[in-house]
Hints:
Blueprint: E1 14-18, E2 25-30, E3 41-49, H1 53-64, E4 71-73, E5 82-90, E6 108-116, E7 127-139, H2 141-154, E8 156-157, H3 170-181, H4 187-212, E9 223-226, E10 232-234, H5 240-248, E11 251-257, H6 267-276, H7 281-289, E12 295-298, E13 300-301, E14 304-310, E15 316-323, H8 328-332, E16 336-340
Parallel strand pairs: 1-16, 2-5
Antiparallel strand pairs: 1-7, 2-7, 3-5, 3-6, 4-5, 7-15, 8-13, 9-10, 9-11, 11-12, 14-15
Amino acid sequence: xxxxxxxxxxxxxxxxxxxxxxxxxxxxxxxxxxxxxxxxxxxxxxxxxxxxxxxxxxxxxxxxxxxxxxxxxxxxxxxxxxxxxxxxxxxxxxxxxxxxxxxxxxxxxxxxxxxxxxxxxxxxxxxxxxxxxxxxxxxxxxxxxxxxxxxxxxxxxxxxxxxxxxxxxxxxxxxxxxxxxxxxxxxxxxxxxxxxxxxxxxxxxxxxxxxxxxxxxxxxxxxxxxxxxxxxxxxxxxxxxxxxxxxxxxxxxxxxxxxxxxxxxxxxxxxxxxxxxxxxxxxxxxxxxxxxxxxxxxxxxxxxxxxxxxxxxxxxxxxxxxxxxxxxxxxxxxxxxxxxxxxxxxxxxx
Length: 350
C-alpha cells in the first residue's frame, strides 16, 4: 500500500532541510482549558527534547508507580523536536512523587503541576503552536514569498503526515499484516495500527478531491466543518452563502474517518465515498468490526497566525498554529521539498 498525497498548488518552489537540531522544530500544545485545581488527576506541563511522547509517558508511569494506562495525554509529539505538552496522572489514593525527578536525564523540564477532575484524553487540546527553522534554503525568493502568501490565505490539503504511517510506511504495512493475520497485539500497537489504517483511507479520499480540484470547495451532499471547531452540518445543496463561507475559510468540506455508523453526508456523496474505497473494503470492514465510530476531519487546513521571516543567515523561520490532529509537515510540503537533518521517529505531532 502506497501513501500518495498529490499537491494542491503544484510543485513547491524551494528546497530545505528541517530538524537539523531539535530546536529547529518547536511545538507548544495549547490545551484550550485550564485545569480545575482539584481532583484525583495530576496534570504535568512538560518540555521534552529529543524524546518521544510514549517514552516520556512510560517514565511518568514508572515514577508515579501506576500503569501506563493511567497516564493521559492529548497528542503524540515528535521525538526530534523541542515540545511542550500536558500529561495527566491518575493519583487517587497515592502519594505524589517528586515530579522534578523527571528532569534528571536532562531532556525533560517540568514547567507546571496542576490538579484536575478528569483524565486527559486524546485529541482534546485546541491547537499546537509551531516555530520551525528551514535551513539550506534554495529557491527564488519571490516565488517563495508568493507561495507563503498562498498557503496563508488559501491553506493546504489536510493530509495526515508521513509520521502517521511510520518510516517508509512501515507502520502502515505492519497494520495491514495484522489485519490479515488476526494475531493478538498490545493495546498500544492496536491503537497505532488502527490509526494508520484509518488515516490511509482518509488520505486516499482527500487525494481524490485534490486531483479533482474540489478539496477546498463544498459540493452538494458534503459534510461541512466549521473552522477551528468540531461542529459540522450537511450541505444538501450548495448556494451562494455556502460558497462565500467556504471561500473565506469559515467552513471546509469534511471527509470521513472511517468507522461504523450512518454517514450524515448526502446519499450520493456517501455512495461516492464508499465507491472510492471499494478496493480497500477489507480495511473499512475491519475498522468497523474493531468498534471505531465514524467521525469527520476537514479536507482543508488553514494555519492561524501564520507569519514568516527570511533570516540574514539564509534560513527561513515559520510561526503558526494548527488545530489538533493537523500536521506541520503537510504545510511544509506545499512550500518546499524538504529532507530531515536528523533521523526522525515514527511518532507525529498532533
